[in-house]
Specification:
homodimer, 42% helix, NADH Oxidase, 221 residues
């Protein structure tokens, strides 16, 4: 068994920070159509399986989707849901410029990326250690797996985009998922022409970056 | 601005995998009482702030808790909730040996660790880009921040334990959190005497590790 008690150096920790800071949400305008190496896909999945999970329940399932028909069905759900989103922004009194900016954004890469991965939560029957007071912990374990995948992909110079403007029921239907599964994340995965220096929504001024002192508190509110 | 389009090498990616695999959930029997360096705490928080967030909403807040009284109040909630958990396992027809195993587990390090960090979701009023169809995306962004913290801590040879056997309302009350905030994670942070080679619950046989072929599917169910 490998030594997991190993000590990492400052230089190694600094490299991790560079990877965390260089990870981006990638959309269809940056993906290349190149097929991914199976060895890279395997590393991304291995990273997922090393995520923490509440009570070591490992409540995750990963469906690799390349089929064009499935992806077109899922992309249709995106377009429907994005139209509803626009209605919500209109109702929320966003000004014309902001609505125009929303409509100009490319928010997914479902068909442009060579691989999609649908990530599901598979709830366990009966109590799960650590999940008895906070039932959402199972889903949160699956999210930790997604973040591991995102970071491993970035270290392999592969981009991931998380598409959340979807009807989870339609994604489940397209992939024939059992009733009890819950969609946590729908990921577009592929090589990219470049990674942006900062999040696109930051560059475009959609939202401002919060300063540390706005979100870090000492001892309480 | 740093170049975020940098290419990482296979050796660097392999190092990330080592970090992912060496990260552990740490409980009170492994924490040392040593105070943490402020520079390390800053790096852990910086890692959090580089997490992805839906619509760049950055819906997170981090409360650093060292105060003994707050921690004792929160530890009391753990003991109450853990008693309820035991009732659930009893009702779930777990056998006597499994119940005994549960009772013998050390499941938190609230007072043993030198620092606790309560991580909250601060929901935004009005629609959030990317969150209109899946409202849980805001909470999931906060979970990504937690996973970044966990990995950064591990690279600094610092342990984190996520305590979820808590009543979120009692934690909120102890920290005077506003009504609309939601507790996502309660973290115990500190140096450790050692990191285990594998998850403790795996070593103890509480749950078995799932094989990749059990949780990875091609094209659908």
């Amino acid at each position: 068994m490998p030594d997991r008690n190993q000590q990492f150096s400052t230089e190694q920790s600094d490299l991790l920070m560079q990877m965390l800071a260089a990870r981006r949400d990638v959309r269809g305008n940056r993906f290349l159509a190149d097929e991914l190496d199976q060895s890279d896909i395997d590393k991304i999945l291995k990273a997922a399986l090393h995520a923490p999970s509440v009570g070591f329940s490992q409540p995750w399932e990963f469906v690799l989707v390349k089929d064009k028909q499935s992806r077109c069905t899922i992309a249709e759900s995106f377009f429907e849901e994005n139209e509803k989103a626009l209605q919500q922004f209109r109702a929320g009194n966003y000004d014309a410029a902001k609505l125009e900016q929303y409509q100009a954004l490319k928010l997914e890469g479902i068909v442009e990326s060579p691989l999609n991965i649908a990530v599901f939560y598979n709830p366990k029957k009966g109590p799960v250690l650590g999940q008895t007071s906070m039932p959402e912990m199972g889903r949160y374990s699956v999210v930790c797996a997604v973040q591991n995948m995102w970071l491993m992909a970035r270290s392999l110079n592969i981009g991931i985009g998380w598409v959340s403007i979807l009807d989870p029921q339609k994604v489940k239907a397209a992939l024939n998922a059992p009733q009890d599964r819950e969609l946590v994340a729908y990921l577009c995965v592929g090589k990219v022409d470049k990674f942006y220096d900062q999040p696109e929504l930051e560059t475009l001024g959609w939202e401002e970056r919060k300063a540390e002192q706005q979100v870090v508190l000492s001892e309480g509110y």
